[in-house]
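Structure (tokenized):
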């Protein structure tokens, strides 16, 4: 699959079959994530792969946006002890977002569906995920990605809008 095709096929999938995702596919997703760019190559990301039923159920209840039934979730978190110092620390958000997008594109290539559910900066959702996974105060959960074999197939689309492009020449 070409990159352009993957970008247009990548759509939020919110309904999944009950077929588990093989570990080889999960490994490819994580390799893709860690192939993303990061500010000064600090790589402040960490990933929690959740396949246990009770933990998945708890993640579904983390926020009002996370109620998706799948056999797999990946929590993407930033580790501030590896982030840039002081006023540059928030680059972890961009770094983890790039890793997340790589997961979504790799999932599309593998024939998986996925939905990115934001956690940060919702304090209550952050706390729920932090408690569930045993995260430290230095580990901030950015999002939960629910993944699996899609039970729905949104049509590919190009969302280009000329009005959003501003040329400076």
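Design, position by position:
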């Amino acid at each position: 699959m070409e990159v352009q095709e993957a970008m247009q096929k990548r759509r939020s999938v919110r309904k999944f079959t009950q077929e588990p995702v093989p570990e080889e596919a999960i490994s490819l997703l994580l390799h893709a994530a860690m192939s993303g760019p990061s500010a000064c190559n600090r790589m402040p990301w960490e990933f929690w792969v959740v396949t246990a039923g009770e933990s998945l159920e708890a993640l579904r209840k983390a926020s009002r946006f996370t109620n998706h039934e799948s056999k797999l979730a990946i929590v993407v978190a930033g580790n501030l002890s590896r982030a840039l110092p002081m006023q540059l620390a928030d680059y972890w958000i961009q770094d983890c977002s790039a890793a997340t997008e790589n997961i979504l594109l790799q999932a599309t290539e593998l024939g998986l569906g996925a939905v990115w559910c934001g956690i940060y900066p919702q304090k209550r959702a952050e706390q729920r995920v932090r408690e569930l996974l045993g995260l430290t105060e230095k580990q901030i959960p950015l999002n939960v990605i629910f993944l699996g074999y899609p039970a729905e197939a949104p049509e590919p689309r190009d969302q280009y809008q000329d009005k959003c492009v501003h040329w400076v020449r």
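Reviewer-requested clarification: Helices lie at 3-9, 23-33, 53-60, 91-109, 123-133. The first strand starts at residue 45 and ends at 50.
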